[in-house]
Amino acid sequence: MKHSAAAAKTSGRLRRIRQAGLDKAPCGAQHRTSGTKLRFGSADVLTGLAGIAVSFLVLCALVPGWIAPYSPTEMNTAAILQAPSVLHPLGTDYFGRDVFSLIVYGTRDSLLIGICSVLVGVLIGGTLGTLAGYAGGKLDTVLMRLMDVLLTVPGILLALTIAAALGPGLRNIVLAIAISSVPGYARVMRGQILAIRRRGYVFASRAIGARPSSILIRHVLPNSAAPLLVMATLGLGSSILAGAGLSFLGLGVLKEIPDWGALLSQGRGYLTVAWWICTFPGLAITLFVLSINLIGDRWRDAVDPKRKGKV
Amino acid sequence: MKTGLEVKELTIDVHTPRGTLTAVSEISFDIAPGETVCLVGESGSGKTIASKAIMRLTDYENGRIAGGHIRLGGQSIESLPDHLVRGLRGRRIAMIFQEPMAAFDPVFTIGSQIVETMRAHRREKKSVLQQEGVELLRRVGIPEPELRMKQYPGELSGGMLQRAMIAMALSGGPELLIADEPTTALDVTVQAQILELLDELKESLGMSILLITHDLGVAAQMADRIVVLYAGRVAEQGPAAEVLTAPRHPYTSGLLNSALTQDIRRGERLRAIEGSPPGLADMPGGCRFHPRCAYASDRCRESVPPLSDQGSGRLAACWHADEAAAGAAAASFAAAVQPEVSRPLLQAALPVAAINGKASPILLEAQNLKKHYPIGGGWGRRKRVIHAVDGVSLSIAEGETFGLVGESGSGKSTLGRLLLQLESQTEGRVLYGGEELSPQGSRRWRETRRDLQIIHQDPYGTVDPRWNIGEIIAEPLGVHTKLTAAERRGRVGELLEQVGLQSSWQDRYPHEFSGGQRQRIGIARAIAVNPRFILADEAVSALDVSVQAQIVNLLQDLQRQLGLTSLFIAHGLQVVRHISNRIGVMYLGKLVEVAPSEELFRRPAHPYTRALLSSIPGSPQAGNETFTAKGEIPSPMNPPAGCRFHTRCPIATDLCRRAEPAFVSVGSGHTAACHYPL
Amino acid sequence: GPAPGGSTAKAASGTAGSAASTPVQGGELTYALATSPDTLDPRRSGLAVSVRVFGALYDTLLIRNADGSLGPSLATEWKASEGGLSYTLKLRDDVKFQDGTPFNAEAVKYNFDSIIDPETKAANALALLHPYKSSEVIDEHTIKLNLETPSQAFLGNLSQGMLSLVSPTAAQKDGENYGKNPVGTGPFKFVSWSENAEIKLAKNPDYAWGSAESPNTGAAYLDALTFKIVPEEATRIGGVQSGQVLAAETVPPQNVVALQNDPNAQLLQTNTIGFPYTLFFNLEHEPWNELKARQAVQYAVDLDSIVKTLYLGTYERAWSSVTPGILGYDESLEGQIKPDTAKANALLDELGWVKGADGIRVKDGKKLTLHYVDGSPNREKRNDIAAMIREQLKAIGIETEVEITQDIATVVYQNWDYDLYGNSQVNSDPHGLASFYHSTEEEGRRTLSGLSDPQVDEWLDQGAIEPDEAKRAELYKKVQQYISDQALILPVYVFPYTVAAGRSVQGLAFDPFGYPIFNDVYLQK
Amino acid sequence: MLQAIASRLASSLLVIVGSLALVFCIFYLLPGDPVLSMVDPTSVSPEVIENLREQLGLNRPFHERLLTYFGDMLTGDFGRSLVGSEPVLPKILHQVPATLLLTAASSLIAIVVGVALGVPSAVRKGGLIDFAARIVGLFGISMPTFWSGILLILIFSVQLKWLPAMGSDGWATLVMPALALGFVGAGSIVRMVRGSMLEVLGEPFVTTLRAKGLRERLVQYKHVLRNALIPAVTLIGMQIGDMLAGTVIIETVFSRQGVGRILADAIMAKDLPVVQGVVFFTAIVYVGINLLVDLSYAAIDPRIRRRGAGQ
Ligand SMILES: Nc1ncnc2c1ncn2[C@@H]1O[C@H](COP(=O)(O)OP(=O)(O)OP(=O)(O)O)[C@@H](O)[C@H]1O
Ligand SMILES: Nc1ncnc2c1ncn2[C@@H]1O[C@H](COP(=O)(O)OP(=O)(O)OP(=O)(O)O)[C@@H](O)[C@H]1O
Ligand SMILES: [Mg+2]
Ligand SMILES: [Mg+2]
To answer: A90, A292, B59, C104 — which has fewest CB within 10 A?
Structure first.
């Protein structure tokens, strides 16, 4: 109410995106498939599969040794560039490492890149967005202009300079990806806060004399968080991809056990002679992103109180 | 040739994530050419879905016609191929909807949407159709139709849009017009205009009308015949007059009893139907009404009563139709005689202070309150101001219930918020117990919050969906008391029982409750810290009649028990009359009349009050030209000079256009701001 | 005959020009480079890739023959003064720059003086020209170059592309912008450079001063020569395979194998001379200042297997601190060191490093770690070498921290923060060893190895001025043996410059530095 | 209206100046020395390096450099590249068209594919098309561009010889890079359009349109899509921004000219003037995209048009 008309416009816009962008299907959503027709993508079956996939990946991340048939660092120079076979289900790479084992062991760092960078990004972006949305006024303007500035500076530049400034390393890659994702989260959070602030229950809470801080913590934040969290599930995949992109530009980290992005980027030169080296890590990313998105969609439906209420 | 519409044993299934549910079961009714049939029933009873099925619009909404027939002029619709159905829609059957604001595509002009409808069914030059469109708009009473054709839906008022939609519906020259709650979203004065228009069009065009409504008053005014739906089944149907006066189904009589009419005396307990309508997923077996029915027997629980002939064109689905009919007659007899007998008793039950407001001390007082909302501005646009509340003075005595009525946008809610200082005024002041109420955010503000509570209009939007109801009700306790968790739980349990819910429901979430139950939760929350004053802003407007009656009863009981003072805001005049000691009428940010409740209804002094009263469907003045307000409420951005009502007033003079009338006393405790009080 | 001209080009498959045919005039050669030149002003360039273009645009005073000897180019005769403090050069009198400016002693003087002028911001050229002091124009086509100190490498450096001669007129006129409007005396003249896309050159029809060793001393056969800048390996090779470019440089080993069987492409390969890709121990860091520790690494690392695995047999293993083809290369070092894990373990045991529970050796509570720094991107699979070495060192209980950084300049040359770092250099003279192994006095400056041994300094100083070739060679052999005995380095591979070309490309040869010679190229119809 | 334009310009200018200042600070704080990456440090003496620093003005204090920079910029002088010493402005201007063209082409592909898949996917929610579109969309957002780019080259250049593998002249060279880049954007846009369409399909006015007897196609494309595009436009704008950033990788893979590559090279070389030139460009494009987004709002939505223009 105290923000400018322009701010209201943007926030409204963002809210619309948020709502629509997350595939919200209204109750009584339209579709013409009648009961007899085969229903593809039946939400629950797919989500179930996705759940299995993610559980498997988490298992890979936690106890890769149980799953991988070989050590990921074992370089069998007698068996380099071998096509998939019974011995090496996904083939071997140019060091003679078993690609399947590499992928299994690489899960941990890949997930770590995804999860940590999203966590940091959400934390910073969410906080800034909350501040801007809740405080409004000058602070809002300043913060949002700052976010604009961050958006304007190409993410790759941020990533490259952060990596250059802090030195390479998983932590800094994570930080680089996180920082370039901050403006997005901040904007969504701000829009969300602005919207939730106007909700009836916030008004109602204010009317009984609850403190603003308690309203923020107990009402506004919990109700604003869902879209941010759903956005974060999408961010998981794109962070891993961003990591792969940095790896491609030569900013990766040479770890004993490369993450999927690094595998993909390092193996790309062998696409013509040994396609399996970078294709399977690519599929691993796809599988992860796909599953997380499916679960995210479903979860969004689940946390959306409006949809919970309906038949 | 024309046989009208025939619906026979229509059953509609809907696919939901929880499986296929039956929304409408074996409903049958006919509409003869030129006839108006009203489909009445509470929310969720299947009115909309049944009407959509007639046009096969259910196809798009997970719906499926699972059985029965729909015939229009002898032609079966339920099995027609898609392209033929499309030819039917808009041409032989047209439909208008509840919310005209939402029923137009916001990004196309009114004109293009009307022309588009015509072009869907015939080939004709655009300019010709354009001209026809203008004529249609003129026909439904839209001023400057050429201009309106070029405007976007967002630029027209609701009443205007509803007219435009009617025009659009007429463009195909339909045999049957389905109107799904066409006036619920509109102001009372506009509702009256629209209903009148529909009636007039039906006469002149010879259409049939299927009018869907939950308002028995509307049905009484419009219908030739009435079909009462309950939980997806027809409960009763027959000629309007008979159904309304001698119902043969307990549900119908329950509905009639719940509805507030002028026959019911103020302060009297309403005979509400207990419980709430069942959800689709948990339909009771046998007669679906039996859990709420006073006549329910084992038979009702076990087998479904068929829709049986009750003579003189009436059908009812009840095993105990005769008893019900007898009971209804007795009840209405009681209602007719009761007032004289019980009035003194009732008044004795009220706190003494509430009766003669003058004597008791004033609890809350507004002095020349103004609230101006700046809008626009910045970005190079001219700054403008909405005069939401524009100089209102009033006082509410301890123990009194003050009712506030007025059309949408007249500033009732804003005034309420100002009185509680939930917003700061532009001008004027608010006194609470003689002291100026501390503005929001100040140190003392929190203390006054305990005394002043609100019951909100939207019982769903004003509770945090993530909190269970225990937490919701306990929130004010957490803010204002130092109770332990266990004590709080205990208190919440008490409160739940006090509002007619079970104390064990604390751990449930809002979405698990029906609308009426949610409003009870809101009330429990409001009374949790023993307030002195309660603002009820449209606290019952969103509820079904049967439930509304329960809540009104509850509110009255609580007020009496707790000795509450309250401000009761509503646009439903009957409700306000029923519950309030005094009533204030607002128009465009100003209070135009204040009077004791009965006095206001008996002897309205301001032409606007008169217009409001005459727009109540079924009221003696209804449809009386001389008392209806013309046109629509002007924009609060630039309210008319002089008397604000002069643009719509049937008796306005030059004086009214020039000078703002002052409040004059027209009776004891009765004041009005009019140059020519009636 | 085989690849014509005095190049060391060995055609890996279907030698270019094996079907001895007469050159065809005309056509355009498109040549994909892996990286972009920084500038086309040789005085200011710091990149080898620029030199590939300089070869077409410019000439040098001298050239390096295939056998390693110096030959005439723009200078026809050269003579050192007594004491080696100056050189007198006779210049060709029939040469004109592409802008018409005559090539003469003044032009040479201008070039060299401008290199030592700080205003020019010369970089690598300045180092190559060291210890040049001044020029004296004896006559129109005779010049005397004065040095601060005698230098045996000086003359050889005059054959290096970064000391190509630019047109004084153009250089003065364009100033800072000269690098985008280069004018030389070479067989091709500059047409346009659209950054990150291509550099277009056109035939210089007046060219008639090609080196006598070259089959074509006259104007180029090609009408035009276009360099495309294609950083991505797969795209570069794909370009040749799809016929979009006629030649592409630096073919990755895995594609070499594939291209050898491609009927539409040929593969040209030549080993470069200078200093092979070498991993330098940082002698200032513990424990690598100890010989036994370095030897342990030397024994633990199986470079043979690394080179074979990663380069699939397309790269030669390096054995010494210089490559074959450099004066004084010590062949006796070849095959000397064989991997021996037992020995390596024994050496570390001797030093008191004991294996801990995690298999990593510990001494005085400190883990035995090796900080291995390498540049990014993964040029010539050098990062992969690091990965393999890390695995092999793990076997003897050394933990290798591999740092891959884009900012080698800071990590290595500013902070000297490495235990092992790899570098290679194209060079023509063994004197370059001094920049890796000679002790330094100046503050803030040191060599990659950080070696400071008066004996080595003496050999290197001697080598710099020793006029007798045989004696020089002996001196540098001593240095090489010392380096090997002291296990100062791990020499890894000799870099072969590889080019994939369409079948129609004929006569493409390379100079000993591995730079392509375009004047002899023609396109077979 | 004029005032609106002026205030908008002012805030855009602020953002641009902010971005440039940010980049300046980042570079100032960055360790390392551009000069060291310009020369071969093994053979070049420290005096030479010191001299280069002096010549390039790298020894001057921070505020002096910042002031000079902005001062020069006011006169249209963006400085000279540290590496090639050519003036920055022409250097970048020369690359701008290629990058803009690529961004525009990929945006077009992303939008067309996004809409073409998103609409039927929403209309037949739960059907085969929906399933396929969602999977395609998810693949789009889970595949690194360099990988799909190389794959395209191998298929269409090397195997089929249909399209050139590299370069930036002619339409043929645009096809594959635009596809690789556009596919990613399409992935998000499909999701967005689908969600947004579902939202709009649930609006009451859609029922009115059907009740009028309009053809389904007309309902979906003329009415629903247009309304659905309103929230989608912001996302599309953001996607265009992302695609602009994505050119860094794609331009490298396809060896295209462009600002992205210049940026990557300049960052590696710590060539601050060039980096700033590029950021200036990206900031302008970003501001331009925002403007375009707002214009398309007005074009799609009369409510905004009237509000913006009238009064
Ligand atoms: N597309 C649908 N999918 C699932 N359930 C539906 C759908 N349409 C209607 N229903 C359910 O069918 C029942 C009847 O709905 P309908 O809209 O016809 O009621 P109504 O009588 O018009 O109520 P109201 O007065 O609130 O408009 C409700 O319980 C509703 O939730
Ligand atoms: N926060 C606000 N900002 C701007 N305008 C407002 C605000 N709140 C209310 N208004 C405007 O003030 C006028 C009065 O609004 P208010 O909500 O008080 O009316 P009301 O009588 O309660 O109407 P309704 O019956 O629709 O609830 C309306 O024109 C409304 O648009
Ligand atoms: Mg309805
Ligand atoms: Mg209100």
So the answer is: B59
How much is the pLDDT for D248? 86
Confidence band of D41 (pLDDT split at 50, 70, 90): low
In this structure, the residue with its CA closest to atom 9 of ligand 1 is B49
Query: Tens digit of pLDDT for each residue in B571-590?
Result: 778 888 888 999 999 999 99
- Taking the CA of residue A35 and the nearest CA in chain B, the distance in Å comes to 8
Touching, A vs C (3+ Cβ pairs under 8 A): yes
Question: Per-residue pLDDT averaged across C8-19, rounded?
Answer: 40
Cα of B279 vs centre of ligand 1, distance in Å, is 10
* ipTM value: 0.80
A21-39 pLDDT per residue, tens: 333 333 333 333 333 333 4
Query: How does DSSP assign A28-77, residue by residue?
Result: T------TTS--TT-HHHHHHHHHHHHHHHHHHHH-HHHH-SS-TT---T
Give yes or no for a contact between B579 and B552, defined as CB atoms under 8 angstroms apart.
yes
Domain boundaries, chain B: 245-276+285-337, 356-451+531-673
E strands of B575-655, at which residues? 582-587, 590-596
Nearest CB to C195 within list D45, D87, D257: D257
* CATH code of the domain made up of D95-308: 1.10.3720.10
How confident is the model at residue D104, as a pLDDT?
93
Pick the CATH number of B356-451+531-673 from 3.40.50.300, 3.60.15.30, 2.40.50.140, 3.90.226.10: 3.40.50.300
Q: What is the mean pLDDT of residues D228-234?
A: 85
Q: Give B93→chain D minimum CA distance, Å.
A: 8
pTM of the model: 0.83
Reported confidence tier of residue D271, pLDDT bands at 50, 70, 90: confident
Q: Are B280 and B17 in contact (CB under 8 A)?
A: no
Give CA separation, B64 vs A32, B74, B449, C423, in Å: 10, 21, 52, 76
Q: Which of D124, D208, D223, D307 to mutate to test the interface with B (most CBs of B within 10 A)?
A: D208
Q: Is the separation of the CB atoms in B189 and B410 below 8 Å?
A: no
Measured CA to CA, the distance from residue D17 to residue D22 in angstroms comes to: 8
pLDDT tens column, C270-315:
988 889 999 999 998 989 999 999 999 999 999 999 999 999 989 9
Question: Distance (Å) from the C-alpha of residue D238 to the closest C-alpha of chain A?
Answer: 9
Residue C497 pairs in a beta bridge with C270
- Label residue C76 by pLDDT band (50, 70, 90): very high
Beta-carbon-side half-sphere exposure of residue B69 (alpha carbons within 13 Å):
10
pLDDT band of residue D68 (cuts 50, 70, 90) is confident
Contact list in D for residue B57 (CB cut-off 8 A) is 207, 210-211
How far is B600 from B403, CA to CA, in rounded Å? 11
Any B CB within 8 A of D211 CB: yes
Subunit contact C258:A272, Cβ cutoff 8 A: yes
Reported as a single tens digit per residue, the pLDDT across A92-114 is 999 999 999 999 999 998 898 88
Q: Return contacts of B267-271, CB within 8 angstroms, 24+ apart.
A: B267/B346, B267/B347, B267/B350, B267/B556, B267/B578, B267/B579, B268/B338, B268/B339, B268/B342, B268/B346, B268/B578, B269/B553, B269/B556, B269/B557, B270/B549, B270/B552, B270/B553, B270/B578, B271/B331, B271/B549
What CA–CA distance (Å, rounded) separates B213 from A141?
48
CB contact under 8 A, B21 and A311: yes
Which residues have C-beta under 5 Å from ligand 4, the single-atom ion?
B 413
C175-195 per-residue burial string, b: 16 or more CB within 10 A, e: under 16: ebbbbbbbbbbbbbbbeebeb
Q: B415 alpha carbon to ligand 2 midpoint, in Å?
A: 9
**Ligand 1 contacts CB of residue B85 (under 6 A):** no
